[in-house]
Amino acid sequence: MAETVLDYEAEAAHYDRTRGGVPRAGAAAEAVLRLVPPGARSLLDLACGTGLVTERLARPGLRVYGADAAHAMLRVAAGRAPGRVVRADARRLPLPDASLDAVTAVWLLHLVPFTAEIVAETARVLRPGGVLIATVDKDAAHDVGSDIDEILRPHRSAAAASDRADLITRYAAAHRLEPAAGADFTGHGQGATPRDTVRKLRAGYFASWFPGDPATVDRLATALAALPDQDRPRADPRYRLASFVRRG
User: Fold this and answer.
1) Structural class in CATH, domain 8-142+158-191+236-246
2) How many CA atoms does the CB half-sphere of 79 hold within 13 Å?
3) I need a surface site. Which of 34, 35, 194, 232 has the fewest CB within 10 A?
């Protein structure tokens, strides 16, 4: 489900605990590695956060680095990938042209309005044959057919999503990044409950769906609060990864 951009400096202390922890990170890393080209020697994990996914991407012969804009997140990540994380804006990476075999952006593109700039920058740092791997269509990942989805689905604004697959594909094509294989994985521990969805709704997590419309927020909150089993998690989301290969 769409989120407002959180204060990740404040979130670092409890981010892993509230985001599915090791099971979710392990599932993400396993799916990403299925898309990394054979023989790849270097990978940059953009918006690496606490490094929980980053450390699980390491494999023999593959040097994995992490980059994030939040100091607090990087302090945690540095303990998991010592000497291999850096503070950086994903639009201006401190790397030379054609220096990496793979770049990953897991749970990043839905958060920012400048996805075109991120795609352009990843294309710059990728070698020919290198690959960009990114989660896309995050809102749709949460549409698992639950009673919560039935209430929220009519208000989901796909056109407003900055990580729409067709949008990212268009940005990629402008920089000689061609679509390649995809993958998906389960967001373990991320199944929504009605009570927590009301909390997020009130906190503005879905504000981009109906900006400046408090009456709709009230109506949806009332409908969600009327659902049974207020604290029972519904099905976990199923995230989608897209990949794009850098042509020479």
Assistant:
1) alpha beta
2) 6
3) 232
